[in-house]
Fold:
Amino acid sequence: MEVFDLIVTGFAGALQPFNFMVLVIGLLVGVIAGALPGISFVNAMAMALPFTYLMQPISAMAFLGGIYAGGVFGGSISSILINIPGTPASLPSCWDGYPLTRKGQSRRALQIAIVASATGGLFSALLLTFAAPPFARFALRFDQPEFFAATVLGLLSVIAIAKDAPVISMLSLFIGMLIGTIGVDPMYGMPRFTFGTDAMQSGINFTVVMIGLFAIGEVVDLIVEKPDLSVRKGPGGQSLSGRDVWAIKGSIARGTGIGSMIGMIPGAGATVGAVIAYGVEKQASGRGREFGTGVPQGLAAPESAKNATTGAALIPLLTLGIPGSAATAIMLAAMMLHGVNPGPLLFTTDVTTVYTIFAAMILANLLMIVAAVFVARGFSTLMRTPPAILGAFIIVLSVIGAFGVRNNFFDVWVCLAFGVLGYVMKRTGFPSAPMVLGVILGPLAERYFLTSLATYENNYLIFFQRPISATILGLAGLFILWSLWPLIQPLLSGPQRKSRKGFP
Amino acid sequence: MPRRAKLLLKAVPPALILIAAFVLPRFMLQNQNMAAMIGEGEAGPTFWPNVMLTLVAICAAFWLVREVWTALRAPAVAGEAPPPAAPYNWRLAWAGLAIVILYGVAIQYLGFAFATLLFLAVWLILGGVRRPLTVAPVAVIGTLVLLYVFVALAQMPLDRGRGVFAGGTIELYQALRIY
Structure:
């Protein structure tokens, strides 16, 4: 009863006109910033931070929470419509979202993404409201080896993504991880693979690689193939029906569960959650071989997972004061600026603020449906534009996005170089998605690996000696076996199967 | 070119990656003495890249062996050729990539505003939009909107170019009241 009263008080606070208004503005800002490649929602949150100085703590958190929830979804708009992930976590949305657009089903794809994202986000906001303390105690048992194990699990899910070429996909992943080692190393401060140039010391930014690999090759194909990306009339172009939603309910549930669990682990974040959810869904949906051709389940699972990380990521932030990502670190900064100190004491000293933040997150995910529909409709209108005009502006926005990451022209050159490479990879069938995943997660894996060794006296076995980390690595092993089972099974029962198929 | 030789050509990319995996360790650290400063038993800055290079080499070797094996086992004469796919205009594609690279060069010399105006016009013509009444408004209005959004609103320090173009960009910004 007491919790119910606190929730009512929280909603009363979140629904106050000013708080509600800043929440809606935050959502719109987040969705738009997330949808523009290179202008990430984390940048938008950082830019919005000074505006919160003049607000009450609850308004500030509603504003930043709105940008966070909206931004995590927004990245999928450009993934689905133009095959350029707006945020790293939206990478898996390209794999089945963009093929739907190429079939003239962009509206349906966006609706699947909105429904799945809102469901995942809402569930994790409810999890945050009702189960934050016990989950926080669980999250507290995670240390560097567990963060490393979770990142390895995300990296290994590339095997599940690999269709029939696991070796080439692994090669692409390791090349990406090697690219991620360029620049000053995270532990000793020594420059690696810089070839004597100063610009290389700050490393190769993953956003720049992502924009280059995905955008430029795609745009060149747009002027050569001139595909019709506009929403088609007829069965394929129709809106999402209740039956369609029912068909993807399992994918949404699995994605939400995975996202909620991964989101609670500080440092793992939305990208790891979305990639693992895609890999699991490929095995669990029963349509694995069709993945990559525009399967709704392949879009719904990562979408629900990445938004399910938003509320879950606030659990360690609010209960322990541990920010698990750049976005939650900005929220922590905003709380500290307003004299709100997150941690176990917050739940006794300022419980009204805590429950107002919970209510704001629930409202943000409900309102996200309206905001996302509004923004997505605007973006999908762009699909009527002739491919040459659309492509020209994508290139210009890609160049601005690459430059805007660090206001450095070196990043533009890196983006253009990866653009040419991406085009060659696309035409030769060499997979680019594992490479991007390697550039994103490789540096994280290295950092957690080295800090684990530094913390546990260079004990290389520590990853298998700690129960949670060993369990996650064991799960990773099982996941590989599960993913490769269709390839292994014929080898194990080879001669019998062959004879059954008519071989002598 | 004989079919087997064509198939062997597919082994070139994994072979090049394999060679790179063996050559790159020489260029890992600028000063090789740096690694000697790391204490005994510590992983050091070269540990992770070396692991990655080894994994790259293993995967590339697998790929190379598979390509060579496929080429050697293939019959010398090709069977019935598959029906020709729809023609792909490679010349247009490479021209498009060249223009994108030239756009990057042009930004540094002409400045973002003029380079973008020129790029938009050239790209539209390359993409088959030839009507001047479409090309000119799209290029001009598009550039102006981008300048307002990213220079005026987002305050991004986009390149202004060199020499006369730097002056021209500033005059343009002043005329647009964004400087």
User: Anything to note?
Assistant: Chain A has one domain: 2-70+82-500. Chain A touches chain B through 58 residues (CB under 8 Å).
